Amino acid sequence: MYSEFTKKVPTLAEIQSMSILQTLQDRSGSTCELCGSTENLNVFTVPLKTEDTVDNCALICSTCQSQIVNPDTADANHWRCLNDSMWNENSPVKVLAYRMLHQLRGEGWTQDLLDMMYMEEDELKWARQTLLSDDEVAVVHKDSNGVTLSGGDSVVLIKDLDVKGAGFTAKRGTAVRNISLVEDNAEHIEGRVNGQQIVILTQYVKKT
Ligand SMILES: [Zn+2]
After folding, report:
1. What is the CA(109)–ligand 1 centre distance, in A?
2. Owning domain of residue 125
3. How many angstroms separate the alpha carbon of residue 112 from the centre of ligand 1?
4. Is residue 52 helix, strand or coil?
5. CATH number at residue 162
6. Is the whole model's pTM more than 0.85, yes or no?
7. Structural domain tally of the chain?
8. Cα–Cα 20 to 30 A to 198, which of 36, 98, 137, 192?
């Protein structure tokens, strides 16, 4: 017999995080799932997932984690470990491997590994999303000459453009003042033509 009152009951969150760690330790043999290190291991939730579940997390060491979070500091030699870990059967590990191989695509050997890598469709979609989120940080709008555009700039159209839905053609040479940038699309700007706010492709404008 034991008294119910002496038992400390863990919260649901505690049970869940203990079991994720335990499961990942079992899955990996308590090693970094990317480089095999046995030190400073943490549960890492793979972007862009927000829920801490076994299917979203990998057990990785602090060295791998810091270079994943700050890819500018990535040491290509460290990531030779992907030669082995890219064959891991768990999606979060594969996605991280794919992402780092992409980050290091300046290195010749990383492209070879990417070509060999086998990803299920949903894994590839997940991996691409993580890459997309990196690119979005650096959306740069450029005109037809490669000149960087900013909100408030003035441009001219270098081509007659049919404005869909508005029933008119914006003529070549038309000046568009005070443009605004479409944040998530480097090829789109907005501006007022014929009194109407329209979306214009950057490839058809020149900054003035
Ligand atoms: Zn590691």
Report:
1. 19
2. 4-136
3. 21
4. coil
5. 2.30.30.40
6. no
7. 2
8. 137
